[in-house]
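Section handout 9: paired folding examples.
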Amino acid sequence: MKLTFVLRNKQNALKLSTKTLDSFMERIKTDTKDGAVARRRHEFNHFGSTDSYDQQHPSHQIYPSVEFERDVNDNLRMRTFNGVVALVIDNLQSAEEIEAVKQTAKILHYTLAAFVGATGKEVIILIRIAKADGSMPMDKEEADFVCKQGWKLASTIYQGLLPKPINQQPASARSWFRMPLDAAPYYNPQAVALPVSEKPIAEKPHIAESTVVETTNDEGDAEISQETKRLMDYLNSRYTFRYNSIMGYTEYKDQSRKYMEWEPVDDRVMKGMTMKVRLAGIDARDNDIRRYVQSDMIRPFNPIGDYLWEQYDKWDGKDHIRKLARTVPTDNPHWEDWFYTWFLGMVRQWQVNNLAKYGNQAVPLLISNQGWNKTTFCEQLLPPELRWGYTGNLQMDDKRQVLQQMAQMLLINLDEFNQISPRTQQGFLKNIITLSSVKIKRPYGRHVEDFPRRASFIATTNQADVLADPSGSRRFLSVELTGPIDVSVTPNYEQLYAQAMRALHQREPYYFSPTETQKILEWNNKFRVKSAADHYFFDYFEPAAPGEDGEWISASAIFEHLKHKVGISLLKPANVSNFGRMLSGIPNLKKRETRYGSEYFVRCKKA
């Protein structure tokens, strides 16, 4: 068995090492040469916290449950499951209390080790656990499940003996503690493994007094509604609830269902809960369940804010965003910088409120043959924790669905972009890309509300000539692939989003300047849908540069000249207004406004 030691220096660079449990138990008997643990304890005793101290003096994080290794992108990856879970008993005020906890831990033959933790005010108990069938977890999801179940079972057994309460932070495969120090730790290498059942163990409900519903009789005396309390106890013992503030509804997990993902508590689920409650002998109706699960007694959860906050101030100083862009092979010299700015815009879009003036208007457009991993690249831009916020199934003709997904999704892939009609590109799509907020009705809601737009766009296509809106093409960051995208290595999501958070905190631009926008327009010219009028214009005219022998001619005059040459039946678009918009999208074609309308600086080609 090997414990994993992880150290991040002040630049957040990751260092990883392992130690056998035997050598670890010897190591913690003495402090480091510079007395690092003692200094940390001194800091804790004086200030009650070591958060700022830990930033200035990084120390090892020790992972007991799993031996980790790191992949080529510095992600921690499970190598071996150790079959160990840690209980923490903290807020111990004296040496006598510490010794009492250690002596109690010795009584049970599941105890592998017990020692004083990093602050000197807690005892960490390492407990052997194993699956009931004797097998070992094969992946991180199963390891997390076994650790959680083992922690629940161990907590139930040990709390009945311990003189102090166990810290109620449940364990996972990634639980860790800082370097401890104990001159006389308890260690039993022959500890017996506590068998963990495959069936989830119901968490003991923790209902504060303030959550008990009270009623008042005619005399004004408060009476506790025991039936309501029974209802809440029943629900909390069998389900875990959270209010998803992004989606706008309560979600749940059934504790009897292994590996269940969070699901919304809709009417069907509510009715099922009601039937189970009534079968348990509790007199309750749908409305009783609804009052509780839709109340502010359910803890709020912001999946975006929680994830981004976890990455705050962890950037290691390396450019991970442009490194990800380089997995896309292309001859576009601007691609890395364009992708960097767009990525910042995407993360910024997740943080805005409905008072924002602008949305993220840039859209990377990946152009290549089929089978070059465009869609996989788009999916992998979001970490697994936020992958629910990705969709590549947007029905542009269903405007209600589009607006709803813009409020609730994080990244929308306009897959097969070439199938979006020119009319939709120039109208509806052009409009929604610029929106900063949307007006929709929530799922299970009853009225229209104003929501901040969350989603940014990315697009893929197998055809090069797809941009049908000349003036709107400035919003597309077109990149033609020269080979398949390398999706073999999992992106380092922690560092990607830590870098983005740092850049936004330092007020780096997440939008394109007028100069950059002009470059985008010029680059996109070769990806425009070419109409018949485009081709005929260049047959008879060409843009003239300042100082050249050119002349200012109106759109109508150019249109009449072409109509005379080729005939109206071949000239599309077949009206002057559309023709003028087409001329305005031609790069390097100078335009000026006069009292009679727009004029263009052109030179007639010799026949």
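Moving on to protein 2 of 2.
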Amino acid sequence: MRNRPRLRVLVLVPLVIAAVGILAYFTVRTTLQIDTLRQQSVLEATLALATEKANSIDRQIIDQDNVVMAIADPARLDQLTERWLPTAQRETPSVRAILVLDQSRTVLAFASRASSAFSDEETFRRVLVERMVGDMDLDNLPLDELRHLHREYDSQSYLLSYWQRVHEGRRYLLVARHDIGRIVRETLPMLLHRRESPHDDGQSPKFVRANVANRVNVIDEEGRLIYGPSLSNGEFTVAVRFPTTLYNWRVQVSPLASEEIASRVQNRRVLELAMVTISCIVIVAAAIAILLVAEKERRISALKSEFVANVSHELKTPLSLVRMFAEMLQSGRVATPAKQREYLDIIVRESERLSALIENVLDFARLERGRESYEFAEGDVGDAVMRAIAAYRYRTERLGVRVRLDIAPDLPRARIDERAIQLALVNLLDNALKYAPGSPEIIVRVGSMNGDVRIDVVDRGPGIAAEDRERIFERFVRLTGARKDDGRAPVRGSGIGLALVKHIAESHGGRAWVEGNGREAGSKFSFTVPTRVSHRPAAERSVEIEPESGLTTPAFRPSDDKASQRVS
């Protein structure tokens, strides 16, 4: 049953760590998915823009082809030039020439807007008849269906729009040659860099912002730059082929700050992962801290239970003795006066013990409730120590232990609660008597240290291990193994005496600690009281309390050497 809380802790810690690990895994995975979605969103927006640009150029070329299809009528071939040229600049700006061929590839009609030499046009017509028509797959071309041929011939790029028609039983091939140079110089700049209004083609303002925040160019199949700036093949750069017209070229789009966007994505990923890691560490640390606090509270609860049992036993024993010897005296069964005196001494001793225990418990109760019960006033720490030792004389006389008191001269005065100082010293003396019963002498020193008043209680007991010197000032802590080596019964006590000493010292602004007694056996318990008032000269006082001697009001006299006064 005692190990059940510890077992729960041992089970809960791995479970908490495992739960945090699972949470971290899914959080990281979600973070990476969100990061991927962000990148995908940027890519989709860039791809949509590239597709829109390619489609817009395609549409403009096809719109011009539709105008040519309406003008180039096989029934009116002799009027082709008159019908087309007057409106060519406005309706078909990129169309350079229109040709009509019969099934034998003979040019029946030809109209051109070019201002170049006649030989260039003848070269084009020859290449068209000899090579281009053969690449058009006319056998599988339905009537009146528009097709395009985009290819290089003799290192020169051509774009042809063509379709077939039947007139009076004869099949005709109609061809429109587009001016590639004009498309690159005029059409591409106009369409690729156009800032659409929110109402053009149903586009939203969001799409318009995407147009402005990107760089666009056109490249061929081999990656050679046709138009626009050179773009690096970054993470967010996309390329889209023209659907039907310039199908050997591609529109390439990259965000203006593609490298910056990639850097931000990477930084955001690192930041989010770092935040997830820190959060997991905080959760684990908080869980461990909660478990440690719970374990500490469990130990304190166990110590409190032991404290209640110890105090109950400590109260019961002196009460039983007082009652037993009082009943014997009351019954008149004590025959001799010596026995009566012995029984009365026992009653007085146990009453003092009971009073001291009750006083400690009451002070500890005030400590637990956090009440400021001290009444500070300017006083002499040496006088308070003298009175405490005088009140403790019966205990030392009974155990045959001598108490030597050394008080330094010119001791500073301080603001103290005299009763609390006496209580702290009595607890230290009681601790020395309980744990060092064979010690012939206990030394109490009062002096100055760094402007503070320091009180030392030195015994010749077995000493305290270094690892226990901090722990013994905690509430309810008792070193139960103090008497195992000498074979005596374990020391009884409540476990609150040293905790009260520490609380009293800290309430006065000082501290309490324990250390070894130099090269000699035993321990030296010390606490300090800060001085906040001016001091007055005082003689060094040295008092010894020996067995069978009482301590009344001591007399003080100035002396250069240490003076010793024995009070009988």
